[in-house]
Amino acid sequence: MGKKSSGRKAIESYIKHEDMVDNAVKLGKANGLDVSPTEGNDPKGDVKVIAKDTKAFLKLLGETIDKNQAKRGE
């Protein structure tokens, strides 16, 4: 198969984005945090986190990203 059309690239990018949002929500929930996806095109972002859990969620995301990048570098 040759080059991908711009439409196919856009769809693939959207799917990857949705997968990242889903995984971020799952990660937060698995760690006991109050996290949920937003609906529609929320200007505040794609993930909603209760205020008391925000700092813990951001730390968890950062640690998870660091771990995954380290695995790729092995």
Describe this structure in words.
The chain has 74 residues and is mostly helical. Helix content is 59%, strand content 8%. The longest helix has 25 residues. The mean pLDDT is 93.
Regions with pLDDT < 50 over 5+ consecutive residues? none
Shape: flat
* Tally of distinct domains: 1
- Major beta-sheet overview: 2 strands, antiparallel
User: How many strand segments?
Assistant: 2
The radius of gyration computed from the alpha-carbon positions, rounded to a whole number of angstroms, is 15 Å
Share of helix among residues? 55-70%
Helix and strand arrangement:
Elements: H1 6-30, E1 35-37, E2 47-49, H2 54-72
Antiparallel strand pairs: 1-2
Keywords:
2 strands; single chain; 2 helices; flat; two-stranded antiparallel ribbon; mainly alpha
Brief summary:
The chain is mostly helical. The protein has helices spanning 6-30, 54-72; strands at residues 35-37, 47-49. It has a two-stranded antiparallel sheet with strand order 1-2.
